From TrEMBL:
Binding of FAD, residues: 58, 122, 151-153, 320, 326-329
Gene designation per UniProt: lpd
Name used for this protein in its record: Dihydrolipoyl dehydrogenase
Catalytic center residues: 452 (proton acceptor)
Domain FAD/NAD(P)-binding: 5-335
Pfam families: Pyr_redox_2, Pyr_redox_dim
Disulphide linkage map: 49-54
Class in the EC hierarchy, top level: oxidoreductase
Signal sequence bounds: none
Residues annotated as domain Pyridine nucleotide-disulphide oxidoreductase dimerisation: 354-463
Matches recorded under Gene3D superfamilies: 3.30.390.30, FAD/NAD(P)-binding domain (3.50.50.60)
Cofactor: FAD
GO CC entries: cytoplasm
Taxonomy of the source species: Bacteria, Pseudomonadati, Pseudomonadota, Gammaproteobacteria, Oceanospirillales
Family: Belongs to the class-I pyridine nucleotide-disulfide oxidoreductase family.
Length: 479
């Protein structure tokens, strides 16, 4: 490891490994340092997202949806099933196989692209030096023309509910329950809380979600958020807004949680398991030597400019350790941008169009501006919405809950935001992202031919509805 590299990336999550691969593709001598190890002591690439986040949670979401569909949804199709059961152990085994397969995929990509994988913990020193501590505690120093910090984030814990073995857990522990809890509490009605809560709800848990904020999905378009809340309520997710957790008490294998409700009254609810999902914080502790020159903000995020440069020339930071939404795809695109910049190319991430997705069933997704944001800006705008209840493919598939919403500038007709709750909402919003990247108008979408019958027709009809031209629903009379 005494060689000097063009690029050293610290962290092999979606931001770091993508950056390393792209840098190597551009002809830069690249190394990627990561501390995750498997049960055999070998490198386990992919970071939080692959190992204990995005991918394993989606594996469980998919399994739980299939179980719930077989249990509750097959009858409407004329399919009868008796004595249906879920083997949680086998479900977890499948999840772990998915993780292993993807781990091996990244390892193969590193080899194919010539990225040097270094197992250990990285620390940024002054003068573009990186100290690496291996699994045995031995240290060595490598140097690089450029350093990219991609160390990710970790769950936030709160004093009222300290983690305790397998009773009070964070998002990582929630992926390892060996049986379906009868009563499950979730603190936080954000993306992680809703996804994990829905997994175990589908498998039979009575789920109560405690959310301190008074509004549901505050960052989403509120029309979509309200529609989503109705659907989740119908699915028996008990979401209590304005519920501020103030304490907890372990009683054997269960926990009493005290919270102050929106009415100001303190209440207590008892759970067999409790998931704390109140957000994540950047992983920057012990990452920098005192004289490294890297500046952090008051919350521990690395301070960077719009192109992820830190205050030290040649040192960049990407992904969850910097400003912006903590999303894998945002980090990946920052990784590509930084690699391109280091190679002398022109590159910039469009932070106005970062898609957000909640992988519940149905999905909730959005990109661009919400109606609240457009209204606050003072821009004149117009809106088109369309329900999946009027889409033939959705009705035929028994997936008719939800809607698609398109927001456009009133003067230019340029699409400003696309929002959806419903089947394949993420994929439909992604179509909207493409449209917005090319500065399309709602008329452009309206004049585009969509296959029939498809879920995508909901986006087409919502675009038509922007100007009152929807075909398969009566249009509102325009003032």
């Amino acid at each position: 490891m005494s060689d000097k590299y063009d690029v050293v990336v610290i962290g092999a999550g979606p931001a770091g490994y993508v950056c390393a691969i792209r840098a190597a593709q551009l002809g830069l001598k690249t190394a990627c340092i990561d501390k995750w190890i498997d049960d055999k002591g070998k490198a386990k690439l992919g970071g939080t997202c692959l190992n204990v986040g995005c991918i394993p949670s989606k594996a469980l979401l998919d399994t739980s949806h299939k179980f719930h569909e077989a249990q509750k949804g097959f009858k409407v199709h004329g399919i009868s099933m008796d004595n249906l059961s879920i083997n949680v152990g086998e479900m977890l085994d499948r999840k772990n196989k998915v993780i292993k397969q993807m781990n091996q995929g990244i390892t193969g990509l590193f080899k194919a692209n010539g990225v040097t994988s270094i197992l250990g913990t990285g620390k940024v020193l002054a003068g573009k030096q990186v100290e690496v501590t291996d699994t045995d505690g031995k240290t060595s120093v490598i140097s690089a023309e450029n350093i990219v910090i991609a160390t990710g984030s970790q769950p936030i814990n709160i004093p009222p509910t300290p983690l305790h073995e397998d009773v009070i857990v964070d998002s990582t522990g929630a992926l390892e329950f060996t049986e379906v809890p009868k009563r499950l509490g979730v603190i936080g009605a954000g993306v992680i809380g809703l996804e994990l809560g829905s997994v175990w709800s589908r498998l039979g848990s009575e789920v109560v979600v405690l959310e301190a904020q008074d509004s549901f999905l505050a960052l989403a378009d509120q029309q979509i958020a309200k529609e989503s809340a109705k659907i989740f309520k119908k699915q028996k997710l008990d979401i209590r807004l304005g519920a501020r957790v103030v304490g907890s008490e372990l009683k054997g294998k269960e926990v009493d949680v005290r919270y102050v409700g929106s009415d100001g009254e303190e209440q207590t609810v008892t759970f067999d398991k409790l998931i704390v999902a109140v957000g994540r914080r950047p992983f920057t502790e012990n990452l920098f030597a005192a004289d490294a020159g890297i500046n952090l903000d008051e919350r521990g995020f690395v301070f960077v400019d719009d192109q992820c440069r830190t205050d030290v020339p040649g040192v960049y930071a990407i992904g969850d350790v910097v400003r912006g939404p903590m999303l894998a795809h945002k980090g990946s695109e920052e990784g590509v941008m930084v690699a391109e910049l280091i190679a002398g190319k022109v590159a910039q991430v469009n932070y106005e169009l970062v898609p957000s997705v909640i992988y519940t069933h149905p999905e909730v997704a959005w990109a661009g501006k919400t109606e609240e944001e457009v209204k606050a800006s003072g821009e004149e705008y117009k809106v088109g919405t369309f329900p999946f209840a009027a889409i033939g493919r959705a009705v035929a598939s028994n997936e008719a809950d939800g809607m698609v919403k398109v927001i456009a500038d009133k003067k230019t007709d340029r699409v400003l935001g696309v929002h959806a709750v419903g089947p394949v909402a993420a994929e439909l919003v992604q179509q909207g992202v493409i449209a917005m990247e090319f500065q399309a108008s709602s008329e452009d979408l309206a004049l585009t031919m969509f296959g029939h019958p498809t879920f995508g027709e909901a986006l087409h009809e919502a675009a038509l509805a922007v100007d009152g031209h929807a075909i398969h629903m009566p249009n509102r009379k325009r003032k």
